[in-house]
Batch of 3 targets.
Target 1
Amino acid sequence: MRYGLLVLSILLAGCRTGLKSDWPLYNGDYQSTRFSALSDINPKNVATLRQICAYQLPETVTFESGLVAFEGTLYFTTYEYTYAVDAANCALKWRVQHPIAERPAAGATRGVAYFNNRVFRGSYDGNVIAYDAATGQQSWITKLTAAGSGEFISGAPIAWNGMVFIGTAGGDSGSICHVAALDASTGRVLWNFPLVATGAAPGSDTWPKGTRLAGGSTWTTFTLDPDSGALLVPSGNPVPDFAGGYRPGANLYTGSIVILDAKTGALRTWVQLAPHDVHDWDVAAAPALIKTKEGARRAMAAGKDGHLDSIDVAAGTILWKTPVSKMENVDAPLTAEGTHFCPGTRGGTLWNGPAYSPGENLVYVNSVDWCATVKLEPQAHFEAGKAFLGSSNGYGLMDPLDTRNGWVNAVDADSGKLRWRYRTPTPMLAAILVTASGLAITGDLDGNVLVLEAGAGKLLNSIATHQPVGGGVIAFRSAQQERIAVAAGFSSGIYKTAGQPVVFVFGL
C-alpha cells in the first residue's frame, strides 16, 4: 500500500509540474525548471547517443527558438514562420507564414507555447497568434502593440488556465514595454501591465519627473506558480541604457523579477536585481521556481550582470548572489572617454536561464565572459526611430573575440556555493537541460552538443552538429523512446557565428 501511495504521489507531482513525456512550454514546465523526469538516457549509455533525424529549415535566419514537444510533434518558430515537425523522423507536418512587412536586421522570435490543441506565438510586428496544433490553421490573431510605439514581440508565451501570457520588447527605442494576458480561446486581451512604473503606481517615484520614461523589455518567457497564481516576469534595462544621469533613481520595474497576479494582472511585488542599471544588464531569462533540498521555496534568476540570484519570493528579498561570469570594474562610473567593464553588454546570462535538478540540489546556468568598453554620451537625447542609448559608441565596443569564453555553472541551491564549472572556448547561449538520470545537456557556439555529469561536471559525450547552438535543448518521449532535441544553426553578427537553422533529434 505504501508503495502504491508513493507511486501515486510521484504521478500527481509530475502532473502538477508538467514533468511528463512532453515539453509543452519554452522551459518545459510552468516553474521553468528545465528538468525532465525521463531517465532512459543515462550516464552509462549516453556515450552511444546518436542522431535519429534532423530537419533543416528552408530559411537563413537568426535561429534562437526554444523547442516545444507534444505527443510526438516538435514546434518552433522563426521571424515569419511557425513549424510543426514529426519528432520520429523529422518530416515536416506543416509550416505557416505570418508575413512581416519590415523584417528586422537582428533579433529573434523564440518559440511557442502549447495549450488545449493550439500553439501560440508572438510576432515582431506586435501580434499574438494562435494556430491549430494539428493543421497549422490560424485560430485568431490579436495586435498587442500600438502603431508607432516601437514595441515588438521577441519572447515565447506561456499558457495556463485558459490564458496566454506574453510581453513586449523595444524599450531601447524609447518605449514602455508591457506584459499582457489574452483569452486562449478568442485572443481577447484580458489585462495589460506596464513594466515602467508611472503615475500613481508603486515605484513611480524611482523615476525623475518630466523625462521620457522607457524600458522593461521582455526577451524570452515567464514563470508561473500554479498553486498561488503568481506570474514571474523578468524585465530588461531602463532607458537610456547608459546615461544614468538622465534618469536618477532605481528605475522600477526594470532589471527586476516582477510578480503579478496571473488572473488579474495586479502587481503583487517585485525584486530588483540591477537597480539603476547603466550597463545594459537586462534580466532577460525566466527564473526557475524551485523547492530546495532544505525545503525552501526560491526563485533562481540569472541576468546579464553575471550573477545567479536566490530570491525569497514571499519576503521579496535576495538571499545570495553568486557570480557566474567574470566581474571587473562593475562599480566604476561611465565616462565619455570610455569605461571598460565585465560582463560587457553581450556577456553574463542572456535569453536562456537556469535549470534545476532536485536530485543534485544544483542550479545550472550558462554564462558568457566577454567584456566591453562604453563611452558615455554627455547629453542623452531621444530621436524618434532611433535607439535611445546615451552612449557615443552604440552598445559598446566588445573586447577581441579571442578574449571571450563561456561557462556551464552548477551552484548549490541552498548555500549559493559554486559546486563545479565547465569552461568552453566560445560564449554559452544555448538552453540547458537536466534529467532525472543525472545528466546536464547543452550546446556551444562551436556546434557541439555537450553532455555533462550533473553531479560533478565531467564531460560524458560531445556530439558535433557543425552548427552553432543558441536555441532550445529539450527531452521528451517519441515512439516510446526518450529523445533529445536541439535547435542549432545560430547566426549572429554580434557573436560572429554563421549557421543554417536545423533541428536535431538524438536518441539511443
Target 2
Amino acid sequence: MKICLYYEFYHLLGEKFLKSIGGGIFTSYLNQKKMLQKEDIQFTEKWMEDCDILQINFHGLNSLRLIKKARKENKKIIIWGHTIAENFENSFIFSNSLSPTIKKILIYFYNLSDIIFCPSEYVKKVLLFYGLPEKKLIVRTNGVDTKKFLKNPKLREKGRKKFKIKGTAIGNVGIVIPRKGIDVFLKLARQFPNEEFLWFGKIYNALLTDPLPEALPSNVKFTDNIDHDKEMPMGFNSLDIFLFPSYEETQGIAILEAAATGLPILVRDIPAYDGWLTHNVNCLRAKNNQEFKKYLSLLIKDKKLRTRLGKNALKLAESEDISLQAKKLKKIYQNLLKKIQA
C-alpha cells in the first residue's frame, strides 16, 4: 500500500513559507504525514505510478490534473473536505461574491472522489446538503499531536518572556481575517483592559482582506508571522485562556492544540463544534457578544473553573491524538483497497 499525499500549496509556496503563515489545512497535512509514518505506511508527496491511493488536500488545477490521471489508472481517490463555501465567506476581498462559484467548484471536485474526509459531523451535513452521496462521506478528525502540544512550564516561562506577558493572558491562534472573529476579540480586549490579549497568526495585506483598525487597544498584541512548529507550542503555553470567536469553522485545529495544552477554551456556539465540544464540560460556548463577555469574566475570576475545563479539554485532545487516529486511517485505506481486489 502506497499513498500519494498531495497538498498543492506545499509545492507552489514551499514548506518554509507555509510554516510562517500557518493555517489549518497545512497543519492537517503535517498531521497526515505523521499518521502515515506512525503506521509505517509508505507514502510520497508527488505522484508516482506505483501509488494506490491519491489523497488530496486542496482543490487546485494541478490537483485536478492528478485526480484525472489517477482515475485513468484506476487508483482510489480521497479528498479532504477542509473547504466549504461557508468557511470561504468573510475571509478575503470578494470572497462573499465568489462563494457561489466556489461552491460549484467544490461540488465538482468532491464528486470526483471515492471518499471525502469530513473534519466534523457539521461538514458532513453541509456536503449532504450540497448533494454529495452519503456513502462517500467519512467523518475524520484532523487530529492533534499531543507529544508536541502539551503543558510545559519551561515553554510557558520562555513564551511569557518572549511575548512580554505579565498578567492573565487571553489568546487566539489563526490567520487574521474577519471570519475568525477579530471584531469580538478587540471588543473583549476593550471590555477587559487589565488583561493581556494576544493573537498568534499571519496578518495579510490590506489588498487581500480587511485591515486591522489603526488604533488597537493598548492591551492587544498581534504577532503576525510565527512558525507553527517551533513557536506555537510556546505560544499556547504562554496563555491562561484560549479565546476562539470564529464565526465559521470546519473543525478548528487550533482548538485541539489549545486543548492538548490543557487550556480552558471559550468558543462561539456554532454547529461545527456539535458532538465534541460540550458547554461547561470541556469548553464554554457563547451564543452572542453578551455571553462572550460573561463567560470570559467567569474564566478570569474562577481558577477552579479554568482548571476543570482545562482538564476535560485535555481528555478531548487525547482522544483525538494522531497516534489513535493513525490506526483508524490505516483501516480505511485497507477497506478502500479491498474494493479494488474484489
Target 3
Amino acid sequence: MSPRRIRAGAVAQGRREAERHYHLNEHLEGRSFIASSSARPYTIADISAWGWLDRASRVRKGADDPLGSFPNLKRLFEAVDSRPAVARAREVSKDHPFKRTDDE
C-alpha cells in the first residue's frame, strides 16, 4: 500500500474519531460538563473532548464557525479552553519540537 493511501486512511479515521465527539452535543443539553455532578463538575472526560474539539477547524474545513452547529459543544469547548491550565499547556507546547514527518 502506498504511503499516500495510508495517510489518506489515517486522515479519514481521525476525522471520524473527531466527528464521533460531536454526538455529545445532545448529551450536554442542560449540563455544564460531560459527567457533571455537584461533586465533580469538571472531569477528564471534558479534557479529552476538548482535545478533539480543538481540532474542529481542521475537521470541518471551510466552516466559518466549525462548532456553530453544535452550541453545547461550543460552550463546553470555551469553558475548558478558558481554564488557566489550558493556557499553560498551550504555552508549553510552543517550545516542544513536534514531529513534522509522516511515517510509512
